[in-house]
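User: Predict structure, ligand zinc ion.
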Amino acid sequence: MSWDQIVGHRNVLERFQKSAQRNRLASTYLFVGPSGIGKRTFALKLAQSLLCTATAESELNACGQCPSCQQVMSGSHPDLITVAKPADKTIIPVKIFIGDDKHRRQEGLIHDLGLKPFYGGRKFAIIDDADYLSALSADTLLKVLEEPPPNSILILIGTSPHKQKETILSRSQVVHFSALSADQVMDIIQRNGQIEGEVDLPKVVEAANGSVELAIRLSDPDLLDFVDLLYSQLASLDPARDDFTKTLGAFVDSAGKDSKLKRQRLFEVGDFAICFYRDLLHRSAESNDLQPNLAAQGSAALDRFRQTGFSTSVTQQAVAACIRRTLTMQSEIHANAMPANMIANWLVDLGRLCRAEASFEMV
Ligand SMILES: [Zn+2]
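Assistant: Predicted complex:
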């Protein structure tokens, strides 16, 4: 796989190319950006380029042929450690970093990263789902961040710097990945054949706000219709209007009898809301508009906002506050069952924040 096969993220690639040429690669990076846009694929490609035994590190290119390159592709490279949140867990268990009770410090990511590189080059570790590091896991990582093993590179992959503990944030170089354009998402989906059946692809791609992962999830027509309505509500500056609290409640209830399924569904709705707001922020930042309003072009989320006639009155700061409010709502879902008026409070607060009737600290 060459860099050409990675869609988007040219600015990030250029940044790493410059660092590699100057021999100034950091030991810890935190990749952030919407989920499903290729951060993990980028991290693997970076690892392959730096571990390739046939090319110089300064080239930041992988030959794709040497044993090292092939082992990265097959997931069996001895100097590349990859971990992620197990599907049945809500956090990444600490044993993944320091081994289980019987093998404390004798296995796990931290132990393995400290071993001598098999190929004599670098040791590389990728922690996916870093939004789900437990407090204990974050603490165990501290020592590695403060005293990284020689020639090691650790990449944490999450969605937002706000989801990281300050101890990790302050010791990482943060790399921001932007949402993909609708054309890029369409390109990836069609190339990989990831969505099949009778699906309104252009509508799916528009609603996915630049995320391939969300596009794939939205191939469920019921979800697509709901998310379409959600975005219209968010863009109206009064998300709770027209009894939307009830509509959302019913949608959450329809996930199944099990309260876990309901919690997951509400969490997912939060993901889509964040995706909507984040798209607004990205596009307005990319337009280099110095006014703190949302005046960028080319965003489906922004077009919806414009149709309401309010777009110029909403600041980037207010949108960022809506993202934080949504993250808080999601953390409340994990903390306990869902409080009775959680949905109503969230929607009302989003409206107040957008209409500048409240700041995040006040809600
Ligand atoms: Zn190679």
